[in-house]
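Researcher: Structure for this, please.
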Amino acid sequence: MQDTYFTGTTPKDGFMKYQRGMTVVEMVVLFSIIVLLLAIGIPKVMEGFTKSKMRDEGINTLNVFEAAELAYYARTNRIATLDSLKASSLADPSEYFSFTSDGNGHFTALVRKPIGRLKKGSWISTCVQVTGGIPQISRACSPGDTAFIRRYVPDFF
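Model: Predicted structure, token format:
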């Protein structure tokens, strides 16, 4: 009597035909692809965090100071002190920056915690000056940081 479970094939052929799992070579290739994607992706994510911190906490606050200074000048025809600006509450230190003003339209964001290549003690500043009755804005940063600022915040300068 013939065994009906294995019609036409032997058990050995059936086992080899339906093999499951991955070979070592397939696993190495998959692992290599994952490592390559991580090597490309992690620096891009970190760069995004750096750009976000600089723009959200530092540059945007300086832009608000500029706008408030220009609005004050339009109303009163003189440069404001930090206390007379409606944006003076923004001068409170953030996690990454502390803000100062000299009272003559010059505002500085001092780095409190390193951000990318910006080290603690680096600074970014903006100044609203009036020349011939026309307000003008000038911006600067600590020496050696210009290329870094231009890379992450190209519209600042």
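Researcher: Any notable elements?
Model: Helices lie at 11-17, 24-76, 146-152. The radius of gyration is 31 Å.
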